[in-house]
Amino acid sequence: VGITGARLRLRLDGSDNRNDFWRLVDSPDIQPVGKCEKEGDLLQPPLGYQMNASSWPMFLLRTLNGSEMAPATLFKEEPPKPPLNNFKVGMKLEAIDKKNPYMICPATVGDVKGDEIYITFDGWSGAFDYWCKYDCRDIFPVGWCRLTGDVLQPPGTHVPVTKNIAKAQSFLPKSAPRSMPSPQKTAIILPTQQIRKSSRTKPPLHSSVPKKGSSAKNITPRKKAPKK
């Protein structure tokens, strides 16, 4: 139901778009029509089939009748897997966001353990990061989107904690609070507020604006009671 670059958006016949998924054109998960029949397998209805299961054979015949079949020449073999995990921490790549699989984003290798690598998305919080095998088909070299015509999403705007702040946190006592990133966020927001303030006219020297910490009751003049 959709094509972007070298990826296909697939929808199982008889289901709705909630079960859509993405695959590369050389994925072994997709086969030409008739593969199951040749191998003696039974073509099953998809999970979430909207109609009665007994109507599946007739539904399948109606679906295939008059439909355009993808020729077998379009199905490519999956390339051989690399023998070793040569990834290192800090290497850049392009990776699929598994929570939003239609998106490919700039990413960095955050950690390496055995045959697995930790994918961190540039400019985004860790909620989208994940572990995967080094030969996972969801990661690509830098420039893959440009080569295949896919869309590479821009990096996020999240500013990670710098090494100096992280190093300072390691020397904090255990009883100290761990919410250290907040000073960094304040340092980022303050310049914008200063620019807005400078664009306004300066207030007069004798201003009635209350100082920080004072309340409106302290500055509101009270009427004198009439003398009896």
Features:
three-stranded antiparallel β-sheet; alpha+beta; 21% helix; 8 strands; SCML2_RBR; 228 residues; SH3 type barrels; 6 helices
From the N-terminal CA to the C-terminal CA, the straight-line distance is 90 Å
Quick one: how many beta strands?
A: 8
The residue ranges in which pLDDT falls below 50 over 5 or more consecutive positions are 161-221
* Category by helix and strand content: alpha+beta
Q: Give Rg in angstroms.
A: 30 Å
How many domain regions?
Answer: 2
Name the average pLDDT. Answer: 76
In helices, the fraction of residues equals 10-25%
Biggest sheet strand order reads 7-6-5-4-8
Order of helices and strands: EEEHHEEEEEHHHH
CATH topology of the largest domain: SH3 type barrels
Largest sheet: 5 strands, antiparallel
CATH uppermost class of the largest domain: Mainly Beta
Fold and architecture overview:
With 228 residues, the chain is α+β, with helices and mostly antiparallel strands. It has helices at residues 35-39, 56-64, 144-148, 163-170, 181-198, 216-219, and strands at 2-4, 7-10, 21-24, 92-97, 100-113, 116-121, 130-133, 139-140. It folds into 2 domains: 2-74, SH3 type barrels, CATH 2.30.30.140; 80-174, SH3 type barrels, CATH 2.30.30.140. The chain is elongated, with a radius of gyration of 30 Å. Residues 161-221 have low confidence and may be disordered.
